[in-house]
Amino acid sequence: MSAPSSVASGAVVTPAVATLLSAIDHLEEALDAETTAFETRTPFDIEEINRRKSRCLLELSRAARALPQIADADLVARVGVLKAKLERNSYVLSVQLAAAQEVAAILDRAMRESESDGTYSAMAGRGEKWG
To answer: Distances in Å between the alpha carbon of 4 and those of 7, 10, 14, 22, 119?
Structure first.
């Protein structure tokens, strides 16, 4: 096993913490890439981003299992930054999903209207019954 190293704050970083910090870095990079692409409407390979995020989450969960029960303040702060990035990414994804659902509803309505001859649409639209 390798010896613990230190970071800029002067705290000693064990190999388990270093592995977790690396996993957090990788996940943050993937999240930042996806969030930025959606926010700037830049085309990107969503399947590749999803693969990256899946690999990062697996790496993160494996690294977390090796951690000691007590975490230091620097690690807690890094997890807080990751949480904020996850929340931002979740928000951006929810906006994109809502927009896609709205477009799908518009297309569905247009297709239904183009296929209809109008015979039943006036009564169905008002919820009236026959008889």
So the answer is: 10, 12, 4, 15, 77
Find the domain containing 65 and state its range.
Answer: 5-115
DSSP 55-82: HHHHHHHHHHHTS-SSPPHHHHHHHHHH
CA dihedral 26, 61, 82, 33 (to 10 degrees): 40
Q: Is residue 130 included in any domain, yes or no?
A: no
pTM for the model stands at 0.71
User: Which residues are within 8 A (CB) of 44 and not within 5 positions of it... i.e. 6 or more apart?
Assistant: 33, 34, 37
d(CA 59, CA 63): 6
| Mean pLDDT split into 10-residue runs, the chain, 131 residues | 48 84 96 96 94 96 86 87 96 96 94 75 54 48
Q: How far apart are CA 48 and CA 29, in angstroms?
A: 13
Domain count, the chain: 1
**Whether the Cβ atoms of residue 119 and residue 130 lie closer than 8 Å to each other:** no
